[in-house]
C-alpha cells in the first residue's frame, strides 16, 4: 500500500529492474506503478530509456480501458463529478485511474496539490488511483507523460481512465487526442445566463454534461439541457456516426451518472462495432509520433544559437511587414543549416 | 486588358524587371498583376526570388483591403453569393479581388475551371479580378500562394478581397488565418432539415449566412436563421469582443447583401477601434512564418532517404502498438541526423 501523498523517493530504495517493474505493474502493485510513472515523468536519459523499454514490454497489456477526457471551466465541478463518477464505477466493479493535464501547473511549476483532497471519497477506494498532473516541461511533454501514464495504468489493470483537464490553452485538444470520449461540463442556466463554451470545445465534445443539477438548480439545469441540445442539433455534422448529446448530472445527489456512463458505453460499443475504436487509437498513436517529431524539430531549431540571435529581429520584421513570412522562414532555416555540424544528442 | 482565361505565357514576352512589376501593379495593370501571381505560384527558384523581392518592395502598399473568407458545403451557393456580393461592392466603388483555395484542385491537378463562368456578372466588371485556386503543390504551399496573391491584389488597389474555400479538409483553417472575417454559408431549412455544420466551422465563423432566401425558401430561411442564432447564442464564448450572428441573403434577388456587408464593416471598425485588426494581422504573419518553418522542417525529414526507408515500418509498428510513439520519434530523428552532411539547398 502506498497511498502516500508524495511520489516514492528515487534514490533511497534499490532501483527495480525492467522485469521487476513489469511484474509489479501487471500484479497491480501501486507502489511499483507510482514509481514507474515517475520514470515516465523524469527527464533523465536512463530513466527515459527504462520507461520506454517498460512501455514496450507492457504494450500487449494496454488498451483495455475506456478512456474518457473531462473538461470544463473552473468552478464547473470537475473534481466533484470525477469523484462521484469514479465511485459509481468502482461500485460497479471497475478499477478507476484519474489523471490530470493542467497547463497552469506548468506555469506555477507545481502539480495540482490536493487532487486526492478534492476527490476525497474516491481517494479512499482500493480500486481507484489518482495521479496529479505532471508539472515539468512543455505541454507536448506533459501530453506524452499523461499518455504513457495512462498505458501504465491500463497494464496495471485499470479499466476506466478519466483524464481531467482544466479547459485552458491547448490542453483539451491534446487530451481529446488521447481518449475515446471527450466530455465537456457546463453549469446550469438558461437564456442569457448560459455561460457559453470556450472556442474549440464544441468540436471536441462527444457529450456535454450540465453539472450541479440538484436542489433549486434542477429547473435551470433542465433549461440548459434543452438549449444545449438544440444547439448541438443545429450544429451536428451531417452523417456523423455519433451525435453529441446533453446529460444532466448531480454529483451531490449521485443522479444522472448512470445515464452518462451508459452513453459513454454506447459510444464505445458503436465505435467497436464499426471497427472505429481500434482505428481511432492507431491514428492517435501515429499522430503522437508526429507530434513528438514536430516538437523536437522545432525546439532544436529554436535552440540553435544562430537562430536565437536572429529570431527576435526576424519576428519583429515579419510583424511589421518589412519581411515576408516566407523569406523570414528561409532565413531562419538557413541560419539553422549553418549550425555547427557536431553530432548532437537526441533529446 | 488581359481578361483572357489563360495566364500570360511565360517565355514569349520579355521578362519584366522587379521595377516593372512593382510599377505595373501599383498602376493597377491587370496583365502585370496576373504575371506577378504566376511568379508567386511558380516553383522555379528564380521566380520565387523575384516574387519575394516584389512582395518586399510592395509591402508598404498592402493591407488596405477588407479580407473576407467565404466557405460552405458544395451546393450552398458560394459562387453565386460571391458574384452578387462582388457586384454590390463594385457598385459602391470598391475594387474587388476574388481568390480561391480549393484543395480538391490539388488532387485533380487542375485549378477550378470556369471560375469566371460561375461568376459571370462579376467577371465582366472592370473593377473586379477573379483568380482561380492555385493547383500545384501541397496545401501549405497553396496557402502561401493565396496569401501572397492577396497582398499583390492589395498593392494593385483592390480594397476588398474575397477568398472562397470549398469547405473541405484543412483549407478553411488556413483561409481563416489569412482574413479579417470568416463567413460560413448554409442552406435554408428548419428542424431536422438543417444540414448541420462541418466540424471546426463554428470556431472559425464570424458570421453564418443563410443563402437562397428567396421565393418559397423565405420562411425556411427565417426559421434557419432563428435556429442558428439560438445555437450561436448558447455556444458564444463569454467575454468575446465579437458575437457571431446570422445573416439571411438571396443572391438571386440581391437581398440581405447590404446588411451582411454592414456587419462585416462593423466587425472591422470594432477590431480597428480596439487595435485588434493590426494585432491580428501581425499575429497571422508570424504564424505564417512558423507554418513555413514547420512545413519545411517536416518535409525535409520526410524526404531524407534513411527516413523514407524506415517510415512505413515505423508507422506500422506504432499503429500496432509494438513501438511507443516516443521511441518511434527518436528513431526517425536519429535516422534524419545520420543523413549526409553535404550542404543542401533551401527549398
Query: Segments of chain A where pLDDT lies below 50 for 5+ residues?
Result: 107-113
Shape of chain A: globular
What share of residues of chain A is helical?
A: 40-55%
Summing up helix and strand content along with how strands pair, one would put the structural category of chain A as: alpha/beta
Distance between the termini of chain A: 35 Å
The biggest beta sheet of chain A reads: 7 strands, parallel
Q: Biggest interface in this structure?
A: A-B, 68 and 67 residues
Rg of chain A is 22 Å
Q: Give the strand content of chain A.
A: 5-15%
Q: Give me the strand/helix succession of chain A.
A: HHHEHEHHHEHEHEHEHEHHHH
- Give the oligomeric state of the chains in this entry, treating copies of one chain as homo and distinct chains as hetero: homodimer
Strands of the largest sheet of chain A, in order across it? 3-2-4-1-5-6-7
Can you count the helices of chain A?
15
Average the pLDDT over all residues of chain A and give the rounded result. Answer: 89
Number of strands of chain A: 7
